[in-house]
Amino acid sequence: MRVTGNDKLDPDFSKIKKFTQVLGSVTRDNMFTNNSQEWLLPRINPVCENCNKNKKYYIVMVYYKIFPLIKMSKTYHIVCSSCGEKIELDLQEYFKVKPVIIRE
Ligand SMILES: [Zn+2]
């Protein structure tokens, strides 16, 4: 697909691929800040609102890539380990949980 019709200016969208990368997981315990009851992500329920069953969440990065160039439009998501319910995090939220992500 072309936007301007100029081959040199337009990105070739047929070469865009979507990737999903699991960065790790966060548990209910390490999402509370040290010795307090303050949950790191006020917008996200400590237990999945959908299934109420999960003991942890996965943190997932979704990005697009135009081969063979750079990663673009990265987004971060928190995913229930039990039912797969997925909520997009804004960057501020991602930076809050980043230090407590357990790499798998
Ligand atoms: Zn769930």
List the helices and strands and how they pair.
Elements: E1 16-27, E2 56-66, E3 71-80, E4 86-89, H1 91-97
The chain binds zinc ion (ZN).
Zinc ion is lined by residues 48, 50-51, 54, 80, 82-83, 85.
Describe it:
- There is one protein chain.
- The chain is mostly beta strands.
- The chain has one domain.
- Helices cover 7% and strands 36% of the residues.
- The chain contains 1 helix and 4 strands, in the order E-E-E-E-H.
- It has a 4-stranded antiparallel beta sheet.
- The model has no long low-confidence stretch (mean pLDDT 86).
- It binds zinc ion (ZN).
- The site of zinc ion has 8 residues, from loops.
Sheet with the most strands: spatial strand order? 1-2-3-4
Major sheet:
4 strands, antiparallel
Bound ligand species: zinc ion
The helix content is under 10%
Overall number of strands: 4
